[in-house]
Every structure is written in C-alpha cells, then in structure tokens.
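Milestone M4 deliverable, item 7.
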Amino acid sequence: MHFKTLLITALAAPTVLSAVNEPCYGTGSVAGVCLATADCTAAGGSSITGACPADAAGIRCCFKTSCTNGASGNCRWTSDCSGTSVANQCPGPSGMKCCSSSATGFGGYSSPTIPAVGACQAVAVNGASAVVAAWPGRVREIGCVRACACPGTSDHCCGKAVDLMCSDAGGTPTISGREIAEWVMNNRSTLNLKYVIWGQRIWNPSVDSVMAWNSWRSMDDRGDVTQNHWDHVHVSFN
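Output delivered:
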C-alpha cells in the first residue's frame, strides 16, 4: 500500500486541535468518536470531555454502548467488529456502525510479511518482528521504507521506522493500537526506540516519563485517519 509522508517532529509540542469524526476512547475504553455534543445527543450517545485531543468548544468523545443488532448490539468502528455491522444506528461517520458481537478482541489477521534487511534497517526489521511476535494477529501489514532521500523528513526515508497497520485497510479507523503502542513504550530499551505514535499522541523516551497512552503528548490534527495515526502505530528507531 502507499504510505503517506508524515512530517513528524518528535520533540515538538504543537498547538493541538480536535479531530472531528475520528476515534476516541469513551468510558471504560469503549469505542467513541470525536463529535459535536449536539450531534452526539441526537444520535442517542453519551459524551465525556478530555478524550479528544484539546477538545474544541462543543467537541467531545461520543459513544453509544447499545444499539439494535441482536442481543449484543453495540456501536464500534467496523474494523473492530468480529460480527455483522448495521448502519444508521450510531453517532459519527459511516465507519461507526452497530456491531452484533460483544467480543472485545481486535485483529485476527494473518501474519504480515516482515521487511527484509537492506533499505529497511536491521533495527526496524527486528523491532517489527518483536511486535508481531508479541501481538499475533494484530498487525495486518508493515511499511518501512519510503521513496524519499535520507535523511529526509521522516525516519522512513532511512529505513529506521515502521508503520504497523492494525485496521482492515489504510484509512480505516480502529482503536486497537493503544495496547501495541504502550507495549512498545514499555520495551523501549530492547527495541532501541526513538519514539512511538498512536492516535494523535506521541511518546519519546528522551523527554517523556513512562505513562498511559492517554497522558502522552498530543499532536496537531493532520487532517485524516492515517496522518493522525488511527489506522497504524508508527515506531521510529535509533
């Protein structure tokens, strides 16, 4: 697949904006969507503050735990539903649908192809292999090298970063990457980690303390699901 060039400044703390219609975690870490409170209420949802990066006025994390699709109907992103999905019952964009399953697991993907050592540096290949081994079935595809001159504007240009795609397709939202991102943080020394990004938040071992993902530094809204890292975990290595 095509991996977009992401202009990432690992140490920066830019002005942060909410990413309307993109994922968030509601009460109990259920699937939510950043949405205007009026739209959330109209769709029968509940909302909380602080779960969308720097909530703009009237924008909150909206979630709806019950909908009509069998006894276990619940609203979630379609990439995270192991059953059937029904439209027009949930708040947010078309990717939020009523799922028939109460199962809370993610993924179910075949083992992805691990990049070969070469243009993709050994540290990135080893890091990707470690994540896949620790989280079987959770990574669908791995991207490493981009067509840009090293050092360029991304660690991908030098083959020292991987994008761990963890949704059904590029540009398809999921909330599945948090556990992987926190695992990367906790295994920073073994991985020789430079920084990790998930869900519009960044963690860098040279400046940040170990903490839960929701306390990581927020990043600016870059305009879409992929650029805001809601379909993949980005990992850069030293």
